[in-house]
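FORM 7B: Structural annotation worksheet

SECTION A. Query
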Amino acid sequence: MSHQALLGARSFVFGDLRTQLARASPLRSGDQLAGVAAGSAQERVAACMALADVPLRSFLQQPVVPYEIDEVTRLIIDSHDAAAFAPVAHLTVGEFRDWLLGDAATTVTLAALAPGLTPEMVAAVSKLMRNQDLMAVAKKVSVVTRFRNTLGLPGHLAVRLQPNPPTDSPALVSLLQLLDGIVQQHAIPTQTCVLTHVTNTLQALELGAPVDLVFRGALRALDGDVPLARAHA
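SECTION B. Predicted structure
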C-alpha cells in the first residue's frame, strides 16, 4: 500500500500507516512536542488525502502498533468481529466517512457495526471530518454514561475542558486535589480528569489522589475516558 499524495507540484511520502495517521491529525502542541506532527498545513492536507485512499482492511493487516509487542493490539485483533465489519469491509477511509454521513448509518446499524471497528479505523475517519461532520455522526449514536452526572441524553450538551498535561507526578497529585476540592466545596455535578499518561494516573491512585477518570488517549488513538470508583470513597 502506498503512503503518499501529490499536492500541486509537490509529492508527500509517509513511511508507514502510523506516520500517515500522525501527520493527518489536527495541529496539537502535544504532537509537536513528540515530534510526530505534520511540518506544515500543506503536509497535513496531503496526509489526509492519502489517508482517504487507505482501505479499512489495512488496519487489520498492518496494525499501527505491532501485534507481536503489544497486548492491546492482540486483544483488538483477536476479538475483532469480522461479521460485524463485513458491511464496510470493502470501503476506504474516505468512503467510510461518506457512508457514516449517509442515510445507511443509523443508530441501529452503527451499534451493529461497532464490534467490527478498531480504534485506529475510528481515529482515521475522524481525521477526515469537520466538527460538523463529527457532530452529525455522533448524533446517530446513543451512549449514555453515569457518574456524578448523566451524559449522552438527547437534547443535552456536555463540554470537556482539556489543558496540557503536567510534567511531574507531584504536580499531577496537586492538580487532582485542587480540582476535587472545587467540586466538593461547590457540590458541582461533574467529574474531573488531569490529562497525563495512564501509568502516572495509576501511580496517583496508589498515593490516594482523588481520581475520577483515567485518560487512555496517551496510549492509543481514540481510546476515551474510563470512569473509576473514587479511590478515597
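SECTION C. Observations
Residues 218-233 have pLDDT under 50 and may be disordered. The longest strand covers residues 4-7.

SECTION D. Sign-off
Analyst initials: ____
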